[in-house]
């Protein structure tokens, strides 16, 4: 196992936390807007009320997807950076391996 400098670990932690906070705030704002539209549409009757409810639900779902996407994106970044650090500490890839992204499956 390789040692990571404390300053690098702290910088990485703050970057990930800033990323999560930014996308959490964005996702919650979108989700709140959708919920507010749903609440406003509940008092409207008829087809117009149904359309308003549908629009609010779609916006709320988009907000939830932003939250989930941010979590998955952060998880991917953590794993990818860990793999990169492991490759560096192992002395790089073997000579028969390429890092060309076109060869990934």
Can you offer a commentary on this structure?
With 105 residues, the chain is an all-alpha fold. The protein has a domain at 18-88. It has 2 helices and no strands. The chain has helices at residues 6-42, 46-89. Helix 1 (6-42) runs antiparallel to helix 2.
Number of helices: 2
Instruction: Say how many strands there are.
Output: 0
Q: What kind of sheet is the major sheet?
A: none
Assembly classification: single chain
Order of helices and strands: HH
Mean pLDDT: 85
Please state roughly what percent of the residues sit in beta strands, choosing from under 5%, 5-15%, 15-25%, 25-35%, 35-45% or over 45%. Answer: under 5%
Layout of secondary structure:
Elements lengths: L5 H37 L3 H44 L16
Features:
single chain, 105 residues, mainly alpha, 77% helix, elongated
Short description:
The protein is mainly α and 105 residues long. The protein has a domain of 71 residues.
